[in-house]
Design a protein that fits this description.
Blueprint: E1 8-9, H1 10-15, H2 17-40, H3 43-63, E2 68-69, H4 71-106, H5 122-131, H6 134-145, H7 150-157, H8 161-183
Antiparallel strand pairs: 1-2
């Protein structure tokens, strides 16, 4: 398909957004997906990013922000969505590293028999966090991913400050133990 050939015009999108979306999707899905998967190398991520591209395109069409939709325009959106994905991944990595750093600091000087890597594998950390009990997962997420204070976390989960601090200690310990198990 040529980049300069319109797939859907703004007039069509304004008349029937459902029909416009269908034409847009059928005409450009393979090209947008191919562009994304070639750059990220992960089929699941490529599917998610491709979906985000088409959702953004529909939003732009519905707002009347575009006169003519082309494959080149969609690939431009895909480029931006990939950058957003990589930024999110980097931000998540930094947040997970903050959890690990805080766990190491909160538990004092580490025992020499317990090696704790300075680098955290983001995918493993996500799996570990997902495998924790809901009470541990929520306090760790609120405290370290969302960056809330312990007092704010206590308020959200309706516990006292002291009980929340104790829960955070147990949650960090559970996370660390599970993470070390994944690494072995």
């Amino acid at each position: 398909m040529r980049d300069d050939v319109p797939i859907v015009s703004a007039e069509t999108a304004a008349v029937d957004p459902g029909t416009a979306l269908l034409g847009l999707y059928d005409g450009a899905l393979a090209e947008v997906y191919g562009y994304v998967v070639a750059r990220c190398g992960d089929r699941v991520v490529a599917e998610d990013v491709t979906a985000e591209v088409f959702m953004a395109a529909v939003t732009s069409i519905n707002r009347g922000a575009v006169d003519t939709v082309t494959v080149a325009w969609l690939v431009g959106i895909a480029r931006h969505k990939l950058v957003d994905h990589w930024r999110r991944m980097e931000r998540d990595q930094r947040r997970l590293q903050a959890v690990v750093d805080h766990v190491a600091t909160a538990e004092g000087v580490p025992d020499p028999t317990e090696a704790w890597d300075a680098e955290v594998d983001a995918a493993a950390a996500h799996r570990v966090l997902a495998g924790l009990g809901a009470h541990h997962r929520i306090v760790l997420t609120l405290r370290y991913v969302d960056g809330l204070s312990v007092a704010d976390v206590a308020s959200i989960i309706d516990r006292t400050l002291h009980a929340t601090e104790a829960l955070l200690v147990r949650a960090r310990r559970a996370f660390r133990h599970a993470y070390e198990e994944v690494g072995t």
